[in-house]
Amino acid sequence: MTTRSRPLEAPQTDKSPDELYQEREARIRAAVQLEAPDRVPVVLGGTYFAAKYSGLPFSTAYYDAIAWKEAFKRMILDFEPDAFSSGMAASGPAMDALGAQQTRWPGGTLPPDVGHQFVEGEYMKAEEYDDFLSDPSDFALRVYLPRTYEALKPLSQLPSPRSWLGGIGGFTATTPLFATPDFQRLFETLAKAGKEEEKVRRVAFTLADELAALGFPSANHGMGGGAPFDVISDNLRGMRGSMLDMYRRPEKLLAACDKILEWRSARAVPADLARRGNPKIAMSALHRGSEGFMSRKQFETFYWPGLKRSILATIDLGYIANPFFEGRWDDRLEYLLEIPKGKMICRFSETDMAKAKAVLGDHFCLMGNVPIALLQIGSPAEVEEYCRDLIAVAGKGGGFILRSSSDSIDEAKPENVKALVDSVKKHGWY
Amino acid sequence: MTTVAKSPDQLREENERRLREIVEKTGKTPAELYAERETRIRDAIELRQPDRAPVIMAGSYFAARYAGLTASSVYYDPAAYKEAVKKTALDFEPDLIRGAAGASAGSALAILDAKQTAWPGGTLPPDVTHQFIEGEYMKGDEYDLFLADPTDFTLRYYLPRTLGAAAPLAQLPPVMGMAGYGLTGIIEVFLRPEFREMGEKLVAAAREQEKWRQVMSTLEEEMAAIGFPQLLGGAGVGGSPFDAISDFYRGMRGSMLDMYRRPEKLLAACDKILEMRLARGVPVDPTKARGPQLAFMPLHRGAESFMSKSQFEKFYWPSLKRTIVAATDLGYVAMPFFEGHFGDRLEYLLELPKGKVVCHFEHTDMARAKAVLGGHLCIMGNVPSSILQIGSPQEVEEYCKKLIEACGEGGGFILTHGSSIDEAKPANVKAMVDSVKKYGW
Question: Around Cβ B214, how many Cβ atoms within 10 Å?
Fold first, then answer.
């Protein structure tokens, strides 16, 4: 393991960083277009691995943005993937100030070396679907935020902002609330959290530019194409709630999926083609649509229609959609063929890549899926062997990008990660 | 009549003296007088014959002027204004008097930089009564936004347009996004200096408004203590949804065009407003209610001169009817104020629950109103503001006498002025109130 005192240096090569950037991006672009590049490209990400690799605790990602950014750059420079995927964390001090309830994070509500956890719950109760459907921002403001942030509890005392529609009377009748100590504290907390968040933002903002200057393109340029069902399941109803809703209130669940989709499409921003990055890739993470969570029939009713529309909308905005199909999707790969050819990078976690290649190979670029377990407990030789076999199957004829099965390579051995990235340089040439 | 401005304390002393005189003269306690007046009004509403026709008058700016105050006292000196309303009640002795519904602290309005109202002592001279400034606070293509997410529309579009101090809210990202993605990522917005300033203004406005409200909030109690029932403003489930859109969001021009250009959106917005108001309607608590809970409901755009009968039937009446019925179901007595002429559309009002609504008319022919609605709804009106301003007390008395003869038969009638009496001669107002005591038995 390296130490944080080693200076950052670009690797020794005859090519300029710009030439390297162009070469790497062209490699990714060819794979997306279902062509065979000079060799299989490889993408690397890993928020906590980057910290650990530089001898820093995981909490650095939340509490020391500058150190974390240097660690991430070091990881990319040392391993030399073709593109990086950065998961910059939020500001720990901001989350402390706000009393965030939906996340536990290293150095805050978790020990410094434990990766963050998402805390699901019924943040929207079953009987609150109608409130959400009829006035979603009211629900967000007065019900959801007070439940998910301790510091925002006073918002639940607000009258509905709808009462401010229609003249000054409603608003001035509300204003005395703003002078109460509860709200005074709320305003102070928001300003404090804002300041902390901005510090992080300022540091994170330049990461992609700094890595581009060192010759590394980013593997994502935005978020988009997620499943509306997951928004409900992850954030509002929890897994238990959303699963029961498929049986008990299917219409409400579907109406809420529609609402989320409608809301997103109204606010979608087209890809900025003037900025760096070609193609523009928009990522999303898909959770509850896999075999382990719902039947194919449920998938067809509750998950796929919303997901499909969401992916199509993302494509319309000028992006290549890059959904991360978490879990196993073997029995539902055929649905993906309804998405236009060449417009999606299918990133798989546990799906059988031979099957994926057979079903989707002529239609989409595949991405994946070296098991993180292997990266943690295997040997470099085993990793290399696994990658070689995967490249032979999934990389056949092009249209493939190598990557770990998830970016949670928190506990991976650095030499195994190195073996993964290096494998394309040994076995990935076309 | 001109009076030298008096301090609230002087006014209070005078009021106490006047109350003692009334008690001596009538031999009744304020509580007995209160009960008598309330019974009279209740009988009229419920279509029984009261001992005499009740009379209601507005306090509003008339009370301020009568007590030697400026119109701006409503906004800037609530303690003095409150005494002015009491003085007016004690001097004129109507059966019920209305305070200044819908006003706010002038200092709060100034801090908030309110754009939809011009008010005396603030953006108007001290003796000019408040004005409502209509405009397209919602644009024609924003109906969908409002329909899909009304709170988002309120926070990020409506408030920044109608309150200068709330302008930074336009920079907020959509609130609904926080259900799903949380606050992180957007929270820096609160760091911007203009948000800080907005926070400070809200708190300052809050303090001012609270001071004003504390003084004004006891008006109903204090009026009851001297024997006068009060009219609630805006309770129930609001007024006409069409008016909400026309007055507050789209303006008259916008809403009129919408009847032709986007009728479905307009109707959907009426439904949405109704639905939202029904959701937060609070029933009358019978253990706390003192007398009939009259809900004042000014109606603007449903009159003959604003829309045809077929437009009324399609755009105005359905949601108004549901509003009034809902208010009735919650235990209120709706008191719609039909501004303008409603003569050709009176028959619709027969669809309202019998004996549970008071119809206040401005220009509508009262003989026709009595013919159509008599026996079904209590009617109230409508001594013209112009006579009260430029006529003589004799002319007023004569007018009232005829009106009582035309409408008072069998009960179900309350005498009042047609609309504002801001500029009325006190002697004429006195003649109007006294007329029921001569001819209304």
Answer: 11
Q: Which residue type does B437 have?
A: K
Cβ pair A238, A123 in contact under 8 A: yes
What residue type is assigned to position B327 of the chain? A
Is 80 exceeded by the pLDDT of residue B187?
no
Inter-chain residue contact B151 with A136, CB threshold 8 Å? yes
Closest CA to B229 of B129, B427, B89: B89
Residue B129 in this model has a pLDDT that exceeds 50: yes
Average of per-residue pLDDT across A106-130: 95
Calpha distance A322→A271 (Å, rounded): 14
Lowest mean pLDDT across A54-58, A190-194, B338-342: A190-194
Count of other CB atoms within 10 angstroms of residue A148: 23
Q: Are the CB atoms for B298 and B339 separated by under 8 Å? A: yes
Interface predicted TM-score of the whole assembly (ipTM), two decimals: 0.76
How high is the pLDDT of residue A245? 98
Question: Distance (Å, rounded) from C-alpha A42 to C-alpha A376?
Answer: 19
How far are the Cα atoms of A208, A217, A221, A349, B180 from residue A83, in angstroms, in the given order? 11, 5, 12, 18, 28
Could you give the C-alpha distances from A336 to A311, A398, B72, B86, B161, in angstroms and in order? 10, 19, 68, 75, 45
Token couple for A354: 């031979």
Radius of gyration of chain B (CA): 23
Identify whether the C-beta of residue B136 lies closer than 8 Å to the C-beta of residue B143: no
Q: How far is A62 from chain B (nearest CA, A)?
A: 12
In angstroms, the CA A177 to CA B87 distance is 33
- Burial (CB count within 10 angstroms: exposed 0-12, middle 13-18, buried 19+), residue A129: buried
A197 → closest Cβ in B102, B188, B205: B188
In a domain, B430, yes or no: no
CATH of domain A17-90+218-427: 3.20.20.210
Give contacts of A177 with chain B, Cβ < 8 Å: 206
Residue B198 in tokens: 């907005």
Q: Is residue B47 in some structural domain? A: yes
| B328, part of any domain | no
Q: Which two tokens stand for residue B51?
A: 């001992």
| Cα A383 from Cα A387, distance rounded (Å) | 6
User: Quick check: is B202 in a domain?
Assistant: yes
Q: How many Å apart are CA A271 and CA A317, to the nearest integer?
A: 6
Per-residue pLDDT tens digits for A214-243: 999 999 998 888 999 999 999 999 999 999
Size of the A and B interface in Cβ pairs below 8 Å: 182
Residue from A143, A165, A174, A200 to probe the interface with B (highest B Cβ count within 10 Å): A165
The shortest C-alpha distance from A102 to chain B (Å) reads 9
Question: Which of A100, A138, A259 is opposite residue B151, by nearest beta carbon?
Answer: A138
Handedness of CA A30, A36, A39, A44 (dihedral sign): positive
Q: What's the domain range around B199?
A: 1-218
Helix (H, G, I), strand (E, B) or coil at A275: coil
> How is chain A split into domains, by residue range?
17-90+218-427
Residue range A338-366: average pLDDT? 97
Please tell me the total count of domains within chain B: 1
Q: Which residues of B touch A134 (CB under 8 A)?
A: 275-276, 279
A98 and B183 within 8 Å at the Cβ level: the answer is: yes
User: What tokens appear for B377 in the block?
Assistant: 């709804």
- Residues A361 and A27: their CA atoms lie apart, in Å, by 17
